[in-house]
TrEMBL record:
InterPro entries: Antitox_PemI-like, SpoVT-AbrB_dom, SpoVT-AbrB_sf. The keyword DNA-binding applies. Keywords: DNA-binding. This is AbrB/MazE/SpoVT family DNA-binding domain-containing protein. It comes from Sporosarcina aquimarina. Residues 19-65 form the SpoVT-AbrB domain. It holds the Pfam family MazE_antitoxin. Coiled coil: none annotated.
Length: 92
């Protein structure tokens, strides 16, 4: 269910059940929630306890490694060389 509080904060709410998973507890994240915050299997999230009462999950943005970025370069997505003028005539 979607709602908006008096401060204009939009929320989505669903009731779910905590399940045992090994020695831990787990909660399933509905696909609509995952899509909304752009997380998928393998996403890293920050888990916080707020005021000893609430739990918040914050998706962490993955910072790509240089090797990952370089691996995405193809002849099709490379730009042509850019001419910046004659070398040696720089202005100070």
């Amino acid at each position: 269910m979607k709602s908006e509080n008096e401060k204009g904060v939009k929320t989505m709410t669903v009731e779910t059940t905590v399940q045992k998973w090994g020695n831990s507890l787990a909660v399933r994240i509905p696909s609509a929630f995952a899509e909304r915050v752009a997380i998928q299997q393998g996403s890293v999230i920050e888990l916080n306890v707020v005021n000893d009462r609430e739990i918040s999950l914050i998706p962490k943005k993955k910072v790509p490694k240089l090797e990952e970025l370089l691996a995405e370069i193809t002849p099709e997505n490379r730009h042509a060389e850019i001419n910046f003028g004659i070398e040696g005539n720089e202005s100070i």
